[in-house]
Amino acid sequence: MITATTASGTYYLFNKKDQKIPIIFVHGVGLTHEIWQPQLDFFRERSTLVYDILGHGKSSLNKEKISFKDFSDQIIDLIDELKIDQIHLIGFSIGSLIARNFATKFGERLKSLTLLGSIYKRSNEQQKIVNQRFEQAKSELKLSRQALKRWFTDKYLKNNPDIYEKITSILSSNNMTNFLKVYELFVKHKNDENFNKIKVNTLIMTGEFDIGSTVEMSRELKKIINNSQLSIIKNGKHLCSIECADEVNLAIKKFIDSNDKT
Questions:
Q1: Which string of DSSP letters, residue by residue, matches 137-203?
Q2: How many secondary structure helices (H) and strands (E) does the chain include?
Q3: Model's pTM, two decimal places?
Q4: How far is it, in rounded angstroms, from Cα 16 to Cα 198?
Q5: CA distances from 42 to 22, 39, 73, 241, 251 (A)
Q6: Which tens digit of pLDDT belongs to each residue from 70-79?
Q7: What stretches of the chain adopt beta strand conformation (E)?
Q8: Is 239 helix (H, G, I), strand (E, B) or coil?
């Protein structure tokens, strides 16, 4: 495992194997590359690359105003520095929005695209709720532990106190100035991508009980993204990649294996 920081300040872990096309995982807002440990364990015999997005974990953020272009450029800088030609790209939550943006701009660098817990056209009520959460975070300068109730089932949190403490620790370690810049981008997202520019085969996946990135949103995304397929994770909530790791990993493996053959 190579652990390093790029010249532009991106912290990453690269498990370099014989496969020419690595899998890159993009985490959500307020989190770090550490959430992908179940996937790194499952795909340990493959080339995998995880990193901290701008302003998170050990990756720097030196701009006052940021855009999704900045996050797409971060991926390009990373894979160019590592001399990687093509990738299987997997994005979670805001990471899926980053992945969508990347696919519209650098589609030739993608072998496949996976969107996990992706939003699309929030209702007025849904938008009101995320606006309130943003204002609360801005006023309190901290993240509410209530987020974990939306991300995991109560049963899972009760049976896995170590995961509760791990995610809570990551959330509390955020640089709130940087977090709020990125969180605002997520909250105010307008679904203004040119989805017709996404040409690569795409897997759209969400948890059955994800209230922020709903099943209906994923179904609508499938309608507008060509060459896409849908996978609903039974009993999953937002962080089903951890709670329902086996089902998520097998779905991703099947999808990536099918695209490696093309």
A1: HHHHTS--TTHHHHHS-HHHHHH-HHHHHHHHHHHHT--HHHHHHHHHHHHT------GGG--S-EE
A2: 11, 8
A3: 0.97
A4: 27
A5: 14, 5, 28, 12, 12
A6: 999 999 999 9
A7: 2-5, 11-15, 23-26, 48-51, 87-92, 110-116, 202-207, 228-233
A8: coil
Residue 130 CA to residue 241 CA, distance in Å, equals 22
Domains annotated on the chain, with CATH: 2-260 (3.40.50.1820)
Q: What is the pLDDT of residues 17-50, one digit of tens each?
A: 987 799 999 999 999 999 999 999 999 999 999 9
d(CA 110, CA 104): 10
240 near 233, Cβ under 8 Å? Answer: yes
- Tally of CB atoms within 10 A around 161: 9
